Amino acid sequence: MSDDLRRNMALFPIGIVMKLTDLTARQIRYYEQNGLIQPARTEGKQRLFSFNDVDRLLEVKALIEKGLNIAGIKQVLQLQDPVPEQTEITVSSEAKRKELTEQELHQLLKQQIFFSNANRPSEHALIRGELSRFFH
DNA sequence: GTTCTCACA
DNA sequence: TGTGAGAA
Q: Could you say which of A28, A40, A81, A127 has the lowest number of CB atoms within 10 Å?
């Protein structure tokens, strides 16, 4: 399985994303309304975030903390990722931009867990449990 | 118990 | 952005 596919496959409920990004559910949904992220949905309409979404959320958070508004962030993200539309699973059209190696992917995962540990040491187990499916 | 949408101070 | 209501 390609790394690219894996990054778009992870499915976190909003609660986990809140812990991972330290954003409120309100903010996360607000950013989605503004097109900053495109989380998938379950049949029950609950949001399912991929690692790409979490990654983007962290960028958004960083930008917000720098004093940017939604409009400003939209521009920044558009420059980085001009309309993802839908992530096609076609083998032929993959790897147009950044391909992550196994090591880089694991490094990213470690970072996520590190952030969580720094903020809420008592919730290691929960988050690790949710992320465990990404480790082999 | 968790998340969703909508709405209001 | 926060919070609460009401539904799923």
A: A81
CA of A114 to C1' of B5 (A): 33
**Residue A75, domain CATH:** 1.10.1660.10
A24 touches strand C (CB under 7 A): yes
Closest CA-bearing residue to C1' of C2? A26
From residue A136, alpha-carbon distances to A17, A44, A48, A107 in Å are: 22, 29, 22, 14
Predicted TM-score (pTM) of this structure: 0.68
Of all nucleotides in the shown strands, which has a C1' nearest the CA of A23?
C1
Residue A93 (CA) to nucleotide B4 (C1'), in angstroms, measures 35
Determine how β-strand A40-41 pairs with β-strand A47-48.
antiparallel
Could you read off the pLDDT of A59-99 as tens digits, one per residue? 888 878 777 777 777 777 766 655 555 555 444 444 433 44
pLDDT at A1: 58
Are the beta carbons of A113 and A127 closer than 8 angstroms? yes
Measured CA to CA, the distance from residue A79 to residue A61 in angstroms comes to: 17
A43 assigned to some structural domain: yes
